[in-house]
């Protein structure tokens, strides 16, 4: 006897992304997994985007509007409205391959220990300029130093709600990483599908780019918020942290020993002696 497919609620938080929004929605609609609903949360977009949303409303099962409170709030609002047992967060300028939901749902269906299903991703600026990201997945230990899953991953709604949803204070970024730490803190793992099923659009002024600018501030917030978890896994955390420091120092050494660096350094030496190059005070 065939078991009934669990419903997947695809939640798309939108803020002024009119140019890419329909491609994102279409990628949710075109999933080969039939039992799904599309929820779009308009997080205080401009009138052009609101008008566009009204023009494609027939593609959306639930459309929610709110004032601009940030992506964490918008996603939480979408999950609250979701009627599916599984939830998939999708940013309004990114898109999935049609097979993702089917493949990811089958993994959650058969393994209660899996809390997050992610995949390999293509991070692209345009069709010719891109890189492939292969997250590690695994237990919470793999998430201590950095995120080990794509932020747009499949989860059970009950797991999402039991850990409290997104931290709405993290408006500048890393809210998905912080959520995954809480989601895995009491056990379970993130499963990685070793196929490129997600396409992440790299934009100059995106939230991800801004998050990099505030990287250390955001990391400090997460480390302090979850100090008990970091203390519990201190030896693993410090090992991975030092591994990253060594990698950074090795790269710096390679740069300083390169011909380009040495030539540039020697060319500029006379100008430095004349005081033409001064440190900029921050």
How would you sum up this structure, described in words?
The protein has eleven helices and nine strands. It has 282 residues and is an alpha/beta fold. Strands 1, 2, 3, 4, 5, 6, 7, 8 and 9 form a nine-stranded mixed sheet that branches.
What class do helices, strands and sheet pairing give?
alpha/beta
Helix content: 40-55%
Mean pLDDT: 90
Total beta strand runs = 9
Shape call? globular
Instruction: State the order of secondary-structure elements, H for helix, E for strand.
Output: EHEHEHEEHEEEHHEHHHHH
Radius of gyration: 22 Å
Give the uncertain stretches in residue-range form.
none
User: Describe the biggest sheet?
Assistant: 9 strands, mixed
The count of helical stretches stands at 11
The protein's oligomeric status is single chain
β-sheet strand percentage: 15-25%
Terminal CA distance = 67 Å
Write the layout of secondary structure elements.
Layout: E1 8-14, H1 18-29, E2 36-43, H2 47-55, E3 62-66, H3 71-81, E4 86-91, E5 95-96, H4 100-110, E6 114-124, E7 130-133, E8 154-156, H5 157-162, H6 175-184, E9 189-201, H7 207-213, H8 215-225, H9 227-232, H10 234-256, H11 259-273
Parallel strand pairs: 1-2, 1-4, 2-3, 6-9
Antiparallel strand pairs: 4-8, 5-9, 6-7, 6-8
């Amino acid at each position: 006897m065939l078991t009934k497919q669990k419903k997947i609620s695809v939640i798309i938080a939108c803020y002024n992304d009119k140019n890419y929004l329909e491609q994102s929605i279409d990628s949710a609609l075109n999933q080969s997994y039939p039992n799904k609903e599309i929820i779009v949360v308009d997080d205080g977009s401009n009138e052009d985007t609101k008008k566009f949303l009204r023009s494609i409303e027939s593609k959306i099962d639930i459309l929610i509007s709110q004032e601009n409170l940030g992506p964490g709030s918008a996603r939480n609002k979408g999950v609250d409205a979701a009627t599916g047992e599984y939830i998939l967060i999708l940013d309004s300028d990114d898109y999935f391959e049609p097979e993702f939901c089917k493949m990811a749902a089958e993994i959650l269906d058969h393994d209660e220990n899996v809390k997050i299903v992610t995949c390999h991703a293509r991070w692209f600026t345009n069709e010719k300029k891109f890189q492939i990201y292969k997250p590690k997945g695994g237990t919470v230990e793999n998430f201590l130093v950095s995120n080990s899953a794509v932020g747009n991953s499949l989860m059970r709604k009950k797991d999402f709600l039991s850990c409290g949803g997104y931290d709405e204070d993290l408006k500048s970024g890393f809210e998905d990483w912080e959520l995954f730490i809480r989601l895995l803190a009491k056990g379970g793992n993130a499963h990685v599908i070793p196929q490129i099923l997600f396409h992440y659009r790299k934009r100059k002024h995106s939230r991800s780019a801004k998050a990099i600018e505030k990287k250390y501030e955001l990391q400090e917030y997460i480390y302090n918020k979850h100090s008990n978890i970091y203390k519990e896994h201190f030896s693993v955390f410090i090992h991975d942290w030092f591994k990253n420091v060594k990698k950074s120092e090795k790269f710096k050494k390679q740069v300083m020993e390169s011909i380009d660096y040495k030539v540039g350094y020697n060319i500029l030496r006379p100008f430095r002696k004349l005081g033409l190059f001064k440190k900029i005070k921050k």
